[in-house]
Write a structure and sequence with these properties.
This protein folds into three domains: 35 residues; 102 residues, Oxidized Rhodanese, domain 1, CATH 3.40.250; 325 residues, no CATH class. The chain is 38% helix and 29% strand.
């Protein structure tokens, strides 16, 4: 009897509960609908993002969305990432690029996480249902040692005999780096965005050859700025030359001593040009050396530039900083090892676009090591220790290289006297004619216009504090 009473009581409770549920059911459906309308994105760590990207079978339609600027994207991005800057997502053109992926998983990232959060909100507002915001951005991704697509690296070298080579993406060091864009945010040549001085500007430079023979030239340079005239005497002496010509390759090297005389003061430096001509490529190596005394160089700056004969659609730039003193010849041997490591990195990437850089860096390795032996054997008198060395390995040629060199030097603050190096480094553009300056008047003018102008501007900076700027110098080239 007691059991029946309990069952009866339970049945009444069940019936009452069902009635309440039935009564609330429309409201419950409404709650579900509201929740759906308020759906938001998910924040995920870089580890979760990495696992999602690896699981191609589970996420066959996964989209990796980079919402930074085009310049940032070009300096490095996640593999297979597509670029739509976050501010473009607010417009129909930006959203339309993702129209077919409203229900696909989309991982959104930026530099550190702020812009990707804004972009994720915009995507959700436009009906995208599976948005994943990668916390910490690409900086956290790199910090977790996950791979990125990049052709720009910052490399440090410690030690000499068994150098420790540390290679990192350059974008880690590019906070505040000047990036030239057009009105649409696309990267362009910096010179395209600068208004170069016209003929009415009060900056004029004239040169006069005072002395000249086969291996020696003295040039008077007159620099006029806002009515003030500065006179310089530039003495250029060819100390050593080398030439090797075969059926396949032509190697030429020149080593110069230079002196700038300003009133009762003089500045001395050395320049090495190494030119390699091959039917499939040209390689130019340029080194600037500033002596500290008769036994030591204070600093050096080197550019190795590779230019393939066929058209290419990708460029690279590796900045190499030596943390230990090296000799003139050791510097090139180590740059050869650095080039070897970069060739391995691009080859192991498995990316077809990066694979075309492998030959460039294998060639740089070969020629740098060849030059190291050549300097050690034939320039032993000048094979002295260098206290501070910086180098750039690149396949960027022509005017853009000038701006890259200037910006890199200014970015890394390579010592108080490096604006002199900055302007002079632009002389690599004229390196080909500089190699045979004494053969014709045009080449003499080339030396005066490139090397002479560069060193003159550098002297103005160093002595008088006058700085027209790297972009102005590049306009003159």
């Amino acid at each position: 009897m007691k059991l029946k009473t309990n069952l009866k009581y339970t049945s009444r409770k069940t019936i009452a509960l069902l009635i309440i549920v039935a009564f609330l059911l429309p409201s419950f459906s409404l709650i579900i609908m509201v929740a759906a309308e308020e759906q938001t994105f998910q924040n995920i760590t870089v580890d979760t993002a990495y696992q999602m990207i690896k699981k191609e079978n589970k996420y066959p339609n996964l989209i990796i969305l980079d919402v930074r600027t085009p310049c940032e994207y070009e300096k490095g991005h996640l593999y297979d990432a597509i670029l739509i800057p976050y501010n473009e997502l607010e417009f129909e053109a930006g959203i339309s690029e993702l129209e077919g992926y409203k229900n696909s998983e989309i991982i959104v990232y930026c530099k550190s996480g702020y812009r990707s959060t804004l972009a994720s909100e915009i995507l959700v507002e436009n009906g995208f249902t599976n948005i994943y915001n990668m916390l910490g951005g690409i900086l956290a991704w790199i910090d977790a040692d996950y791979p990125i697509w990049t052709t720009q690296h910052y490399i440090t070298v410690d030690g000499i005999e068994e150098p420790i080579i540390q290679i990192e993406p350059l974008l880690l060091y590019l906070t505040g780096y000047p990036c030239c864009t057009d009105n649409q945010g696309s990267c362009t040549s910096c010179t395209d965005n600068q208004e170069c001085p016209d003929d009415s500007e009060s900056i004029t430079i004239t040169s006069t050859v005072l002395e000249q023979d086969e291996n020696h030239i003295v040039i008077l340079l007159i620099y006029e700025l806002d009515g003030t005239i500065y006179e310089f005497t530039v003495v250029n002496t060819l100390l050593w030359s080398y030439n090797e010509l075969t059926n396949e390759i032509n190697r030429t090297a020149y080593f110069y001593s230079n002196e700038i005389i300003i009133e009762d003061m003089s500045i001395q430096f050395y320049q090495l040009y190494y030119l390699v001509q091959h039917e499939e490529y040209n390689l130019t190596l340029y080194t600037w050396l500033t002596p500290l005394n008769s036994e030591t160089y204070n600093n050096s700056f080197t550019i190795i530039s590779y230019e393939p004969a066929d058209e290419k659609f990708i460029t690279s730039m590796e900045i190499v900083k030596f943390n230990s003193p090296v000799t003139f010849s050791q510097q090139y041997a180590i740059l050869g090892k650095v080039s070897e490591e970069m060739a391995k990195i691009y080859e192991k990437s498995g990316d077809e676009s990066l694979a075309q850089l492998v030959r460039a860096y294998n060639t740089m390795e070969k020629e740098a090591k060849f030059l190291s032996k050549l300097v050690k054997k034939q320039l032993s008198e000048y094979n002295m220790q260098i206290l501070e060395s910086l180098a750039i390995l690149t396949d960027v040629c022509g005017d853009p290289l000038c701006l890259i060199v200037c910006n890199v030097i200014l970015l890394f603050g390579y010592g108080a006297g490096t604006t002199l190096i900055c302007t002079a480094a632009c002389g690599i553009i004229c390196g080909a004619c500089a190699g045979a300056w004494y053969t014709c008047v045009a080449c003499v003018l080339c030396i005066a216009g490139c090397g002479g102008l560069a060193t003159t501007l550098g002297a103005l900076v160093q002595i008088y504090g006058i700085e027209p700027g790297c972009w102005w110098f590049c306009c003159q080239i």
